[in-house]
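Researcher: Quick test of sequence recovery. Tokens follow.
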């Protein structure tokens, strides 16, 4: 399973999602979309973070923990 967090500089919500994934012991990659604009072209996110699971944008913003767990199964 591949999990990517699409983030922007100083994104407070992004650290909340990172903490949730850390607590669940789920590995993830943090991608700063201001440095990698190709991610903005591929995934239309207007709110950070964007959470991409196995190449599919599943969430924007902070998901409920239960919803995140369900998508990670």
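Model:
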């Amino acid at each position: 399973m591949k999990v990517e967090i699409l983030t922007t500089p100083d994104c407070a919500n992004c650290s909340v999602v990172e903490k949730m994934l850390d607590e669940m012991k789920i590995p993830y990659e943090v991608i700063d979309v201001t440095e990698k604009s190709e991610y903005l072209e591929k995934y239309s996110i207007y709110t950070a973070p964007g959470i991409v699971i196995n190449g599919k944008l599943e969430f924007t913003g902070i998901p409920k923990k239960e919803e995140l767990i369900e998508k990670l199964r």
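Residues 2 and 54 are 5 Å apart (CA to CA).
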